[in-house]
Each structure stands twice: as C-alpha cells, then as structure tokens.
Design a protein that fits this description.
The complex is a heterodimer of chains A (117) and B (112).
Chain A (H helix, E strand, L loop, with lengths): L2 E3 L4 E5 L4 E3 L2 E3 L5 E8 L6 E7 L7 E2 L2 E6 L4 E6 L8 E9 L8 E3 L3 E6 L1
Parallel strand pairs in A: 2-12
Antiparallel strand pairs in A: 1-4, 3-9, 5-6, 5-10, 7-8, 8-9, 10-11, 10-12
Chain B lengths: L3 E4 L2 E4 L5 E7 L5 E7 L5 E9 L2 E4 L6 E3 L9 E3 L8 E8 L7 E2 L3 E5 L1
Parallel strand pairs in B: 2-11
Antiparallel strand pairs in B: 1-3, 3-8, 4-5, 4-9, 5-6, 7-8, 9-10, 9-11
Classes of the chains: A mainly beta (117), B mainly beta (112).
C-alpha cells in the first residue's frame, strides 16, 4: 500500500520569501510519480508539478520546484518568491505506475500555506 | 476546452434519498476516478475505471455505485444517503500513459 505523509498542517511565510512544504512517501513499487496540487479556498484542484521516480533531475515549473530525495523518500515542494495568491492548501500525492495499477492518486492530508503581506 | 465537468455543483439531500453525480470528460482519457474530500483532509478514492465497461472499488466504496458505459461519462450513484456522505466529490481523468490527473470542479454534497 502507498502512503503520503505531510507533517505540517499549517505554514506561514512572508511575501517574497521562499517556503518549503514537506512530503514523505512510502511505497514498495519502483515505478511511481509524485505530484503537488494546490487547492485555493474556491475548492478546485490545480496541478503544480510532477516528478517521476526515474527522473534524474528535480522538476521545476516557474516558481515551483520539487526537491526529490529518493533515498529519503521525500518530495518537498519549494515555492520561491511567495505571493499573496499562493495562500492555499497544498497536497502532495503519489501514483504507482506499475503494470496493472489503476494509477489512482494517493493523497496526503495537506498543508495550509498562508502568505503574509 | 471543457476538460472534466461535474454536475451539480451543490446539492442538499435528506437522509435516505438517492442521487447521481454526473462526470464527463472530453479528452478521450481511459482512466477515470471518483474521490471524496472531507473537511480538512486529503482526497480518498471511491471508485475508478480503466475504460468503458470496467470499474473497480477504491478505498471508500461503501454506499456508492458507478457505471462506465462510455469513455466520456462516469456517473457516481449514492443510494440511501447518510450524513457520513457529506463531503466534496471530485471526478478526475487521466490518459493511458503516466501524467497528471485532471480534476473537475467538484460537487459539494450535504446530507441532513
């Protein structure tokens, strides 16, 4: 079974500073993908960034980067130059990609990020 | 460019009533999913489908049923609604190959 752990229920960051949201995962499958989603107060799920288990380099998407440490089974999200609009709930999720898998996402419990002006 | 659409957006049910949550995707994705999100929590998988005519249970299937007669549609049926089914329901789809899941806007359901 897969498990995602997000140990920070809430985080605060000053506008324009960087922030790291923690995520650890557990799976025995060698082939998987790690995702981060943003959920603003409006409720929709917004895809941010993806890292495959065999990717050699850390994923980056604009101000988002994923600090992937495979040996530690961690996939932390780094947001640089925080903006007020970054205030939202952030979910880490994993998807096993092995043959026969339904490829559903397993979610963590989320981190509520608040950006302070 | 519709993506994944869900109806209704909001619904209030009385205990024991039934309803169907609709989900449609126009991206020709094989994989479709239903998740529920309880307040302050992550999403949990209810049912999923790997193609038309094929469905299977997820982590929390009790009290729900699904069908997949076409690639586009994946309705979720609630029979005999209970207060424990008060939640936000998300439908999602993904292509055959690895990649992100595309989410619908969600349906907020209250059972009283």
């Amino acid at each position: 079974a897969q498990k995602i752990t997000q140990t920070q229920p809430g985080m605060f960051v000053q506008e324009k500073e960087a922030v790291t949201l923690d995520c650890t995962y557990d799976t025995s499958d060698p082939s998987y993908g790690l995702f981060w989603y943003k959920q603003p107060s409006s409720g929709e799920m917004i895809f941010l960034i993806y890292q495959g288990s065999y990717d050699q380099q850390n994923a980056t998407e604009g101000r988002y980067s994923l600090n992937f440490q495979k040996a530690r089974k961690s996939a932390n999200l780094v947001i640089s130059a925080s903006q007020l609009g970054d205030s939202a709930m952030y979910f880490c999720a994993m998807r096993v990609i092995s043959s026969g898998s339904a490829r559903q996402l397993t979610f963590g419990s989320g981190t509520q990020l608040t950006v302070l002006p | 460019n519709a993506g994944v659409t869900q109806t209704p957006k909001f619904r209030i049910l009385k205990i024991g009533q039934s309803m169907t949550l609709q989900c449609t995707q126009d991206m020709n994705h094989n994989y479709m999913y239903w998740y529920r999100q309880d307040p302050g929590m992550g999403l949990k998988l209810i049912y999923y489908s790997v193609g038309a005519g094929i469905t299977d249970k997820g982590e929390v299937p009790n009290g729900y049923n699904v069908s997949r007669s076409t690639t586009e549609d994946f309705p979720l049926r609630l029979e005999l609604a209970a207060p424990s089914q008060t939640s936000v329901y998300f439908c999602a789809s993904s292509p055959l190959k690895q990649g992100e899941q595309y989410f619908g806007p969600g349906t907020r359901l209250t059972v009283t």
